[in-house]
């Protein structure tokens, strides 16, 4: 792969209970485990960051797919739910649910766009075969 852009971020402190900062300082905040994992929940966590990145990236792929298929995705939206849990082997795993909303398209056309977006999105390509990702078209 020939990189077009490289993002660089640094973590310090206790990892999930620490601090993250992007090299350009556009991101700069504390991380805290959620209450469900024994933390204070007073900061963001890696799953929230992954959900934000995946939903934004997938929405870009929805628009690219819409252009390719000549379908209007102007008012589309994507919600990503990222879950963490035991992988049954002493570690942890992730699962993702993507809800894709494309008003003005039939259910069939919206599904075509979502399916095409799933082949375009770099997050989908990186996770394919590694974690469970469910893509659903919602109204």
From TrEMBL:
Highest rank taxon of the organism: Bacteria
Compositional bias ranges of the Basic and acidic residues kind: 16-35
Region (Disordered): 11-45
Stored InterPro entries: KH_dom-like_a/b, OHR, OsmC/Ohr_fam, OsmC/Ohrsf
Gene3D superfamilies given in the database record: 2.20.25.10, 3.30.300.20
A family per Pfam: OsmC
Family: Belongs to the OsmC/Ohr family.
Protein name: Organic hydroperoxide resistance protein
Organism of provenance: Herbiconiux moechotypicola
UniProt lineage: Bacteria, Bacillati, Actinomycetota, Actinomycetes, Micrococcales
């Amino acid at each position: 792969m020939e990189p077009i852009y490289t993002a660089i971020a640094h973590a310090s402190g206790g990892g999930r209970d620490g601090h993250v900062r992007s090299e350009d300082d556009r991101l700069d905040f504390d991380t805290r485990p959620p209450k469900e994992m024994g933390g204070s929940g007073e900061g963001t966590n890696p799953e929230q960051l992954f959900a934000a990145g995946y939903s934004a990236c997938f929405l870009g792929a929805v628009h690219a797919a819409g252009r390719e298929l000549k379908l209007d995705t102007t008012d589309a939206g994507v919600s990503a739910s990222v879950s963490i849990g035991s992988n049954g082997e002493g570690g942890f795993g992730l699962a993702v649910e993507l809800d894709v909303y494309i008003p003005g398209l039939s259910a069939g056309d919206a599904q075509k766009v979502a399916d095409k977006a799933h082949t375009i999105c770099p997050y989908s390509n990186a996770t394919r075969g590694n974690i469970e990702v469910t893509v659903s078209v919602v109204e």
